[in-house]
Input
Amino acid sequence: MDKRKAYEFLCGYMTEERQALFQQVSSERTRHLAVVVENLYQPHNASAVMRSCDCFGIQDIHIIENENEWEPNKNVSMGSAKWLTLHQHNEQENNTKSCLEQLKSQGYRIVATTPHRDDYVLEDLPIDQPTALVFGTELTGISQDVYDLADDFVRIPMYGFTESFNISVAAALTLAELSKRLRKEVANWQLKPNELEAVLYEWACASVKDSKSLLKRWVDGTAP
Output
């Protein structure tokens, strides 16, 4: 299916205001940064991270499910899931390893967030290369597999007694800083034309009622 033409067809079932909003928001979307969450066991944390991804224009979130199965909390995510590209990793013996190796093969640099390594602070982290930011489980942080596969580590400076931020807070602080830097420092950070077409198509499918049946009728030549 030609997703550009399919999107144009579905535009006939959306208001001009909705179409304009899609164009505006998609122009701020990026795949230069991606987010990976590993084995979170509290659904509201994963959902809060998804909400932050949407707010800061991050299109891709990778959810690693080793022991814990991800279940979205709609009250927290506020519908953000349907505007993101979700990659669930739950079919391999070691989902962490397969996810990170896949991202590396796609040209991503793996940067793990941890208060226990002192490599970079957010202001100094190089972001010239596509970067996947890994956030670990709530209690113990990133796993040994992430330590072994990470290219670099980043920390958020802390000045209190508590050892670490909540995962959703850490993600929000990290994305706020790096998405701001991305727009100032990195060329061609926005979606490529083919990626933009695919994202607009997915958003239209999520937005238009009965989009699947409408598209089937469009392909069959029986759509109104």
Residues 30-189 form a domain with the Alpha/beta knot fold (CATH 3.40.1280.10).
